[in-house]
Amino acid sequence: MTYPTLALHVAGRWLKQASGGERAVINPADEASLAMLPLAGPTELAEAAESARRGFAQWRRVSALERFNLIRRATDLLRQRAPQIARTLTQEQGKPLAEASREVLLSADLIDFQAEEAKRLYGRSVPPRVPGILSQWVLRQPVGPVAAFTPWNFPMNLPARKIASALAAGCSVVVKPAEETPGTCMALVQAFLDAGLPPDVLNLVCGEPAQVSSFLIGHDAIRKVSFTGSVAVGKLLGEQCARHVKRYTPELGGHAPVIVCEDADLPFALKSAVAAKYRNAGQICASPIRFHVHRSHLAAWNDGFARAASALRLGPGLIETTQMGPLSHARRVDEMARLVADALDHGARLLCGGHRVARPGYFFEPTALTDVPDDCLLARNEPFGPIATIEAFDDLDAAIARANDSRYGLGAYAFTRDLATLHKLAEELEAGMVGINHFGISQPEMPFGGWKESGHGQEMGAEGLLAYTELKTVIVGSPN
């Protein structure tokens, strides 16, 4: 299949050339160039911001029902085009085609949910406390033009979350997808435009990331910033937003623990864990990483986990039998090698994997280590790749303490068949999302967000929509 011609969408025009130059988009499965991506410079960024200002003035006056109807037309187009979009996604990001197809279809579902929820974006009426006041209202109104910055690991899902909530609430958007994976987001923007969205309401830019983010955050048209990415960059953007007093929602990294209790269904837990750990080659912010396994299960777990991980079929995502694709770029492979080498140097023991794969593309073996000491890089830093660590525990309270001993707090998981243990885990694990006997914590109807350095605020669910609104208090007194 032919990869699309790349362009930016600025002020109602698709630009195949821009003042910031261009860069190649690389297929991570074979390292071949897919296309050249035009890069926005200050001229295009200023045009996009001003376009968003005009788009907001127009879109905010469209009723929630009309917005819903238009957005539904866009998701109908996404579903119709899903096979084509999924292939583009796999070409530029690397994940197996089946995973890419699920991502496109789930993105359509989450967009629909946000559009539907916008029809219930209620305010309230408050009884006055003194004579002469006719009414008191609390209103929710759209916050304004949004700058949305998204990474390369979910090139449809992550832009969809931000665009869906913003458009549903009545905001306009300037979206900057990752320069590694622009084609998928282009398809998303095109679906909205084909559904009838006024062109100024949705702009798409790519460029030098630091330049794009600082320009848009500093532009007075932009009223809110939403970012998904690393803790380091998230802190930097947060400082910039604070300097300009801009609303900010960061969804940052994770280092998710998994507690496998003594009473867990071991075969079920093992099968679920291996599938979740190596989905998208571990390039998921809520990916399970630190497995805390009851000592009575440790030997069986280590053996079963290593055998299942080693049996995964690696290859290009467009090959139907592929179970794990490549990492998204060469620097991720280098980072995996560095983390494994550092852990081994500190005394960790390799159960499986641990090496680059000798073939074209950015492939790294599904990897698991045990006896990982606390002073190595892997123990404290998100690998964002196909690496898991495994350690034993004897006491559940100690396992929970170990799970919570992290600067991250995005996802946490556990396996148990005991109701009291389930409630204890749900109450005491320090994470924004907890999965018990299940890894599917990202659902359109549920809020997605983290604690501690994993970010603040939520995406998706009713809570995600509220982040794109401002509160207004209105008090109406008697005219005489």
Could you outline the blueprint of secondary structure elements for this entry?
Elements: E1 8-10, E2 13-15, E3 22-26, E4 33-38, H1 42-59, H2 64-93, H3 97-118, E5 124-125, E6 133-142, E7 146-149, H4 157-169, E8 173-176, H5 182-194, E9 202-204, H6 209-218, E10 224-228, H7 231-244, E11 247-251, E12 256-260, H8 266-278, E13 288-294, H9 298-310, H10 330-345, E14 349-352, E15 367-370, H11 377-380, E16 387-393, H12 396-404, E17 408-409, E18 411-415, H13 419-428, E19 433-436, E20 451-452, H14 461-466, E21 469-477
Parallel strand pairs: 7-8, 7-10, 8-9, 10-11, 12-13, 12-18, 13-16, 15-16, 18-19
Antiparallel strand pairs: 1-2, 3-4, 5-6, 6-21, 14-15, 17-20
Helix pairs in contact: 1-6, 2-3, 2-4, 2-5, 3-4, 6-7, 8-9
Written account of the structure:
The protein is α/β, with parallel strands linked by helices and 480 residues long. The chain has two domains: 8-252 and 455-474, Aldehyde Dehydrogenase, Chain A, domain 1 (3-Layer(aba) Sandwich), CATH 3.40.605; 256-445, 3-Layer(aba) Sandwich (Aldehyde Dehydrogenase, Chain A, domain 2), CATH 3.40.309.10. It has helices at residues 42-59, 64-93, 97-118, 157-169, 182-194, 209-218, 231-244, 266-278, 298-310, 330-345, 377-380, 396-404, 419-428, 461-466; strands at 8-10, 13-15, 22-26, 33-38, 124-125, 133-142, 146-149, 173-176, 202-204, 224-228, 247-251, 256-260, 288-294, 349-352, 367-370, 387-393, 408-409, 411-415, 433-436, 451-452, 469-477. It has a seven-stranded mixed sheet with strand order 14-15-16-13-12-18-19, sandwiched between helices. The protein has a five-stranded parallel sheet with strand order 9-8-7-10-11, sandwiched between helices. A hairpin with a 7-residue loop joins strand 5 (124-125) and strand 6. It starts with 7 loop residues before the first strand and ends with a strand.
